[in-house]
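Entry details:
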Amino acid sequence: MKIGIYPGSFDPITLGHLDIIMRASKLVDELVIGVLRNISKKTVFTVEERVEFVEKVIKEYKLESNVKVKAFNGLLVDFAKECNASFIVRGLRAVTDFDYELQLAQTNHKLYEDIDTVFFTTRLEYSYLSSSTVREIASFGGDIKQFVPECIVQPVYDKYKAIRSV
């Protein structure tokens, strides 16, 4: 069985992430979306909310037959071993992403020689898109419908409404 892992913060999941998920899921028997619980990274959405968002999107796009969602913390290579994954999926938006991602891929391979990294170049229409861009737009009440899957638009707005009311 060929298992791949697509790790990330997904704070929140974007259409760019979804595009990578859809393309990568065609290459594997199982794709595990690893939602990172990173204590050193400040996220707007809790890990539970982020897992729920990804699960909603997977269901909405009928990908649940071979795409699973799991939260994890610690080293990605340990998570890869736990999932019996043979490779890590990463998306590249620009040359600047490549430098960083290449370093990570080489480090992961050094830590666990049975793991490789497969890079997907982002489609042109998503090359500018990031979760941080979505968060900034949403925080000011801007229109995020063209950046995130429809099924999470309202929950993202609801979160920012709750944050503003505190």
Notes: The CA atoms of residues 35 and 51 lie 6 Å apart. The two ends are 48 Å apart (CA to CA). The first helix runs from residue 15 to 25. The chain has a mean pLDDT of 95.
